[in-house]
Amino acid sequence: MSRKLSRGRYWWTALALVLTKCVGAPAHAAVPVEIDSLPAAAACQPGKTLAGTASGPALLRPASSAPSQAAPAPIPTSAGELYQATMELGDWSGHFSRYLVPAGAAGGGASVLAWDAGAILTGGAGKPPTPPPEQRNIYTAIVQPSGALAMVPFTWQTLSAEQQALLNQNDNAGEQRLAYLRGDRALEGKPFRPRGSILGDAVHSTAVYLGAVDHRDAVFLGANDGMLHAFDAATGIELFAYVPDALIAHLHHLTSPTYIHRAYVDGPASIGQTIISGQQKTALISAMGGGARGVFALDVTDPRRFADGLGVLWEFTSRDDPIMGNVTTTPQIVQVREQAGALRHFAVVASGINSDSDGKGALFLLAVDKPRNAGWQLNTNYYRITTSAAEATLINALSAPVLLKGSDGALLYTYAGDLQGQLWRFDFSGNAPWPDAISKPLFVARDAHGHRQPIAEQPLLAYAKVRGYMVLFGTGKLIEKTDRSASPVTQSYYGIIDSLQTPQEVIPGRQQLTQRFLDGSGPPMDAHSKGWYLDFMQPGERSLHAGALSDGALLFNTVLPGADLCSATRSRSLVLNPLSGLPDDGRFTAILPGNDVMLPDFAPAPWLLPQSVTHGPRESTGRQQQTRDIAIVRVNGAGQVAAIGSIKATRRSGRLSWREIVNWRELHEAAK
After folding, report:
1. CA dist., res. 484 & res. 369, Å (int)
2. How many domains does the chain have?
3. Residue 429 falls inside a structural domain
4. Is there a contact between 66 and 72 (Cβ–Cβ < 8 Å)?
5. Is the dihedral of CA 85, 90, 93, 99 positive or negative?
6. Has residue 590 been placed in a domain?
7. Residue 619 in domain
8. What is the mean pLDDT of each run of 10 residues along the chain (672 residues)?
């Protein structure tokens, strides 16, 4: 597996989300679900002095998509690069590093450290911190009750009186605390908490890469130091950082000598293109996870000139709509058709945990181009579509949607599941505010005994063999502490056919589906089958991430958590045909450990690294066969990449057929 990797982007979130909830409280009660932002290695040692390191988010990129102005230069045999976050458990300081991955690393090999952003920010012997604390480009926003905001530098003089008061909590040392947060170390040890790195730890956030056209590439990471950081992808130097206003009330905890780890910017993020004031822009939308109930948006068109552009676009929190909860799934940007056919870019966000919704879920559409001086107004610059709860005594939350666009690029449908097993289809083919966007659940996931199976992951979509789409998702959750306990519920993976009929065709239950088995067996799907399902046979085994679709193959991992955070966690990797649920249909061949083998480590989703592409002889029509070899890999440690399997996929390429159009001139004239 030493061949050069082709262009692509691959994402990884290293740790599963674990939440805790007060026993006996219904999901919609006033008692909130407490999000546990601790990595498992730390949670194993309650009340003890912690030592060692733990891994956080990472991003793997093949060599052909390396930074456009990389410095230092990649090693000659580099296969790609790995951006990886780690944390020191003793003081909750963090590191974020770029590794150059050698060719053949998919078979195991040591990577070369290119830079460590935490070390660069902190400095050391003979190396001053870069940039110096007082020169860092750190910003926040002063937010009005309406949602209007003004971006300001994160300095004591520019903060509002209310923000200053929040930083002054307990000791009236707000100005010194702000200097500490900027990286000043003069008061570390007394009275403030010492730290080995200025950069905070990252647990549930995602590393997001921005490939630039006319400036240097950047990589973004949310951290539990209260900031979203932007780093130069080539050098690791911080370009800017943003402190959400929604988190300022909690920043005083970070300097406490008795600090207990908590979440700040601890949710996933994504980047998308948008139009603002008639200009093409690049926006970053980030969830705050357990840090606060809500999301925020930044203009990252040129991260090196963040303050020169729009900078901070907006924050949307529970102050703006009480149904907004702790968002732990990835926001997405998409064009939406409003009234009179006009297209507008919106951030699509699932409401998440702890919303004031009486157990209901909600899908939010937030206008990316909302002016900073304008407030949030329902059905004007944001929309909310709520889903119902089936059982009031069960915890509920809407999970991340998968988006389906029409031929014009506008949002047509979204599919999302909730923690009560309900799979919803949202119809955006009509006009805003889409009063008929949902009716009944498309499907309710239940095991063979009728127990509801929670859907905590984002579905995948594939074209069905007949009209419609195959909606692919697994069930299970790792949210409450009791989720680790023995449960009578068997979890499953589903492929559900949505025929796109009007009115919506509801699938009553699994009796309309065709069963599959882990040994790869199962009967053929008849013409009346509405899809397929596969039950996980290990007690406690579940799916927390839908996985990936690649060259006609569905790849996903399951997880079998230990009885507690200190027990070993295992996982299983599967490769199936998404349309049939069977292992192979002739288009691809997958080589993985046997389906009865549980691997010793857990990765939410498989990483796919293209290894080579070969072409067969060209036929007289121009058609030829293309074969792609793809490695299925995982990261075993700092900079360590190893293969756990492979895929060989075959497909047609080139011209598929010839057709002579003798009246092309007439057709051309008629189309004018």
Report:
1. 42
2. 2
3. no
4. no
5. negative
6. yes
7. no
8. 25 28 31 64 59 76 55 50 90 94 63 94 94 98 95 98 97 97 96 96 93 86 98 97 98 96 94 95 96 97 91 97 93 91 93 84 96 96 93 86 92 95 94 90 96 95 88 90 82 95 89 92 91 93 89 88 76 89 74 65 74 77 76 77 80 59 59 56
